Amino acid sequence: MKGDSPEIAAEALKTGRLVMLPTETVYGLAADASNPQAVARIFEAKGRPRFNPLIAHVANAVDAETVAVFDASARALAEAFWPGPLTIVAPVRDRDQVCDLARAGLDSVAVRVPGHLKARAVIAAFGGAVVAPSANRSGRPSPTTFDDALEETGQAVGAAVDGGPCAVGVESTVVSVLDGQVALLRPGSVTREELEAVVGPLAEAAGQGHRSPGRLALHYAPDAPVRIEAEAANDGEILLGFGPGVGEARWSLSASGDLREAAANLFRLLREADRTQPKGIAVSPIPRTGLGEAINDRLKRAAGFVG
Ligand code: TXA
Ligand code: MG
């Protein structure tokens, strides 16, 4: 299938159909955020539990503030990281622009301005907020190439935009900015260290208001069992290596030990390894700092540990 233009995609959104949307993090399955029927189709296509709210994608920070109420910290974060892979959860301002179903009935809303030019072109041509969860069926690894995205939920879309392979490869960092506190709900490519450089020390995410309903323990999982922090492959396992000389070159997350490269390769290699139907997928230890926090988070969930 050849990709559609942003204009065709915008027309599909306007008529309540779903769109395959490329972003810099992962491919999204997009719908008009204000249209409950369209949003319901996302939950159906993904098999996603309805208590798990979606992210509203907008074209710029001014539009974000028509959706959500931002305090000084939220503005500082938007200024520092948008357009880009940061999602801000803040009190909802307009309950119709992002419908109740999209917010799972919460009084807060998640919003982000994607860095991918084609994503912003679709949103601009559409002229409103677009909700887009990762385009995988619920519980499976997020797609980071056009073909993987079509394989997951391609049957459900009225248009599909090809944005090439996703440069970042893990989902956006999600923070909540509520009651004057900033908490990290989902580690992502904007690191804890980068956030703290802008807003100071982060609050604990344990508080009721800061919970992220979508953080199911088993998530991002391929069919084969995943074993993390492995020094070597056992019989019948594929080893996804990290660092020089670890495992086979074609299965290396990053031979040079680069976390950005590893993040960009993570979901694609999990999928490719899974396709060979191995006994299991073993993964080398990954450093825990910086972007490593997000990679380890996804790996723990793929391996079925409570996060
Ligand atoms: O990189 C990304 O963020 C991708 C691309 C397509 O933009 N999208 C994505 O969406 O990862 P999704 O639906 O797979 O993840 C959204 C996360 C979930 O963990 C959800 O629970 C959380 O954001 N979330 C959304 N609204 C929230 C809210 N009001 N309060 C707390 N968490 C919220
Ligand atoms: Mg997801």
UniProtKB/TrEMBL annotation:
Reaction equations catalysed: L-threonine + hydrogencarbonate + ATP = L-threonylcarbamoyladenylate + diphosphate + H2O
Domain of life, source organism: Bacteria
EC number: 2.7.7.87
Keywords: ATP-binding, Cytoplasm, Nucleotide-binding, Nucleotidyltransferase, Transferase, tRNA processing
Pfam families for the chain: Sua5_C (PF03481), Sua5_yciO_yrdC (PF01300)
GO molecular function terms noted in the UniProt entry: L-threonylcarbamoyladenylate synthase
Class in the EC hierarchy, top level: transferase
Compartment(s): Cytoplasm
PROSITE patterns in alphabetical order: YRDC
Limits of the YrdC-like domain: 3-190
Function of the protein: Required for the formation of a threonylcarbamoyl group on adenosine at position 37 (t(6)A37) in tRNAs that read codons beginning with adenine.
Family of this protein: Belongs to the SUA5 family.
UniProt-recorded name of the protein: Threonylcarbamoyl-AMP synthase
Native source species: Brevundimonas faecalis
